[in-house]
Please model this.
Amino acid sequence: MERTLYNGLLPGVSRSGDKYLYVNPLQRRDGHVLRDGGEIRDERTPWFRCACCPPNVMRTLASLEHYVIAADEASVVVHQYIPGDFEARIATGTVRLVVQTGLPWSGSVSITAHGPAGAPWTLTLRVPGWSPRTRVAVNGEDISGQPEDGWLRITRDWHPGDEVTMDLDMEVRVVTADPRVDATRGAVALERGPLVYCLEAVDQPGGFRLDDVVVDPAQPVTAHERPDLLGGVVTLAARGRLRPGGQPSGWWPYRGAGTARQLGADTAPQLGAEVELTAVPYYAWANREPGAMRVWIPTT
Model:
C-alpha cells in the first residue's frame, strides 16, 4: 500500500491540486503525445470527459487516516508512517499514537504511545522491505527482537509517553525487474526509501534525448537535497553515456551484427559522451514543461 500511495496514487494529481494524469506511464518518449478523443492522456489535464479517477484520488487522500493503523483486542498495528495523531481501541482501553517522521526524505520515525497502563499490550511495526538495516528503540534502548515476515512486535507494559524510534535505511537502490518482462530486460530503475525515481528531460543538461541515454549501474548513485525544486525534494545523481545519435546509414533500419558465432562485445554499439543524470521522484513528474520521461533506464 505504501508503494501504491507514493508511486501510484500521488503521481495522478499535480502539485497545484487541480490537474490530473489519467494514466501513469513509465516512459514518455521524446516528442510523443498520446491522445484519446482529443484529450492528451500523458500530460496533466484539468478535467476529463469521463472523470472517475480524479474523484477517487481525492477520496483516497481524504480518507488517508484509515490506512495508517489497525487494532484488535490486544495489539495496535502501524501500517504506514504518516505524521498525525491516531487512536485505536483495544480490550483494556484506548491507545493514542502520535507519529512524527521525516519520510519520504529521511528515515527517522518517532511514535509516542499514550495508552492504558498496568497490562501488557503489543505494538506491531511494519519494517519496510526496502530497509534491510533498521534500528528500533524504546525510550532510547535498542530492541533486540527481529522482524517476522516484515513485522516487528513489541509487547510490554506501556506507560504514557513511551517513545519508539525507528531509523530506516535510506540507501539508494538500483533495481532490476523480473527477466521475463521483455520491456524492462537490460534496464534498471532507481529507488530511495518508499519512492521510485524517474529521469525527466527538463532536468538533464545539454538537451540530449532520453531515448539515447544509457546508465552505468556500476557507478555510485548519490542523493542530494533540493529544497528549491518541486516544493522540496531529494534528487538522485547517476552517471551515464549517450548512444550514437541518428539512424543507420541507408534505408535499411537494421545493423549487421555478423553470424551467431561472431556476436560478442565487439559488435555492441560504441557509446558516446559521458553525462550526469538527475532523477526526481516519479510522483513529481509532469509538473513543469512537457517533455520526455522514463523510469526504466537501459544499461547497454
